[in-house]
Amino acid sequence: MAPSLDWLSRLLAIVPVRGRLDTHCTYGAPWRIDQPGAEVGEMAYHVVLAGSAALEDPAGGPPLRLSAGDILLLPHGEAHVLHDGGGTPAMPAHTRSGRNLRISENAGMGERLDMLCGHFVLGRPQDRLLRDYLPSRLVVRTVDPAGTAASGTREVLASLVLLMRQEAITDTLGGQAMLDALSTALFALTLRLASEGNAAPVGLLALVSNARLAPALSALLNEPDRPWTLPALARLCSMSRATAARRFQDALGRSASELLADIRMTLAAGELRKPSAVTSAVAGTVGYQSEAAFQRAFKQRMGMTPAQWRRLPQPIARRSASTLLKGEVQNVCCDRLSKHE
């Protein structure tokens, strides 16, 4: 077993994430972006550097206002619409190629938007662990809306965003490699800041923001091979079995045993990709005493047997430019636990 890590480091070791900055948008109002849904294993992100943007609510509610310093992640990969909020038909946008990324701009004369857009690439099926346990829309603000003293994470994230902007506008040698590396760091820092909030969203972030429940998540991530039971997790959290079950359900929308199974299957899928992997050994690595029990659990969770999974070709993670532009409407600026047995 690897040395014990903090929950976020361990999560990102289980689910590697690569960032890719795609487009630098500079628009004057009126403007509008219709972003198609992301491909499987990808999630779009937007970083507002200056100006503001309105994110449409797919349920028909009022738009979510984004301001300078805000970072928007869409872990579920759904299509979304961003606009200036004025209701006027958008000015046409034009895209040109820089050395390191695309630049999209229009001739609008109203309030100007300066925004970086990209996507995160996650391997399959590891992406399910993040997609299923993060909110569909996650916004973090590098400018503290309460006006209180800035947290260390917020300051670091704000500095990272400034460095990304500098690399985006200077067109320097090695800029694309720098932008991609900074995008990858952006993902980790965004989750770190989101987990520090007093009102973290549901899912993993709600779990880790609750000091009483966080030890259970760390235990499941660092020691998924142990025969964890709800009473054992409750003892780690210094609460009764019934209280632990209720708080897990409230935070995650599912049970601790389901989370454990998802962690195990994510680890198993990665191990099975290794040329030297033996199914019985992988079963033991993720906590199953019986290969048959592991086979049943894997098929239930993944929809195929371990052998079928191993024969699948590795997916192509990056879309071509022609695929990206295919979904453009007015302007698209971005690439955008079975039970333990």
Structure write-up:
This protein is an alpha+beta fold. The chain folds into 2 domains: 7-197 and 321-326, Jelly Rolls (Sandwich), CATH 2.60.120.10; 204-311, Homeodomain-like (Arc Repressor Mutant, subunit A, Orthogonal Bundle), CATH 1.10.10.60. The protein contains 13 helices and 11 strands. The strands form 2 sheets. The protein has a 7-stranded mixed β-sheet. A hairpin with an 8-residue loop joins strand 4 and strand 5 (64-67). It is globular, with a radius of gyration of 21 Å. Mean pLDDT is 86; it is low at 316-341.
Strand content: 15-25%
CATH fold field value of the largest domain = Jelly Rolls
What is the CATH architecture annotation of the largest domain? Sandwich
CATH superfamily of the largest domain: Jelly Rolls
Number of domains as seen in the coordinates: 2
Shape: globular
Task: State the share of residues found in helices, binned by percent.
Answer: 25-40%
Total helical segments = 13
Spatial separation of the terminal alpha carbons: 20 Å
Order the strands across the largest sheet as they lie in space: 8-9-1-10-3-6-11
Instruction: Just give the CATH class of the largest domain.
Output: Mainly Beta
SS-derived structural category:
alpha+beta
Count of DSSP strands = 11
Give Rg in angstroms: 21 Å
Sheet of most strands: 7 strands, mixed
Average pLDDT level: 86
